[in-house]
Structure prediction request, 120 residues.
Amino acid sequence: MARKTRNFSRSLGDAISMATSFVAAIALGYFAGDYLDTRFGTEPWLMLLSLLLGLVTGLKIIYDKAVKKGGFGNVLEKDEDTETRDYAPSKEIITALDEAKQRLAELDKSGKEDRDSGQK
Prediction:
């Protein structure tokens, strides 16, 4: 039950975030275009252009959040009944872990050599 509540809360938060960003991009486009139209006397063309730009920007924000940049793409859920999740580590983390493994292997190798020389 706690997992379903947590998933629901997370999904609700993501949905509200995407909806707010979408509406804000469109509103910003509308009001910026309206301001520019009154300033330059080009009504309604700059408002329509900036409204379209705001719409495209809002859709891109939703796409980035939902598909590309980690909204739902970084978490790989195994099973809904299990509590574990696998997180896909970044390339920097993988590189750092590989370097740490190499250093530990070198330390382990030098420690074995020291023990072997001490026994003789």
